[in-house]
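Quick start: load a record and inspect it. Here is HTH-like domain-containing protein:
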Amino acid sequence: MTAQKRSCASTLVQAGISILKACKFVGIGRATYYRPERDWRKADAAVIDAINAELKKSPRAGFWKCYGRLRFKGYPFNHKRVYRVYCQMGLNLKRRVKRVLPKRVAQPLDVVAQANHQWALDFMHDSLYCGKRFRTLNIVDESTRECLAIEVDTSLPAERVVRTLEQLKAEILCMILYTAENDSERSILLMKALVSA
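Running the structure step on this input writes:
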């Protein structure tokens, strides 16, 4: 950054502007303009070697971890010099920013007051006295809050869940067909809903 400003000021001086005005315009002091350029790689060779030695052991170490290890080893470099060299070497890592998920619009849940219209599945787990863990699958009717089925096992794979739902669907269909004589219109509507699902 300073080298760019100095070259800009020297260009302005070559164009015929005085050194004082050129330095004011660019934003550097006259001492910086007159100071001879030096290669930072030669001047800070000891710092570069120390940083490279630390980064060979742990390449993903950040600046403060690297600086702390250098101080622990007894190097006399202060943190400003080490940070300047660290940045000039292009080692400064981007800070990890936590991703902010978009906010969901809260919508009320619609519960239809009709049996077997909507079921809720819930997995729970617990452990026995001996320490063995088990899981339960609870299927609840949303409108009547009736527990339709509970499957208990040490593991409940997807095939088991699908099989339980298919069995439950067949049982509900049989119940609807059985009670079709009492309430024919409602039962036919429920049966159509289950068949189409």
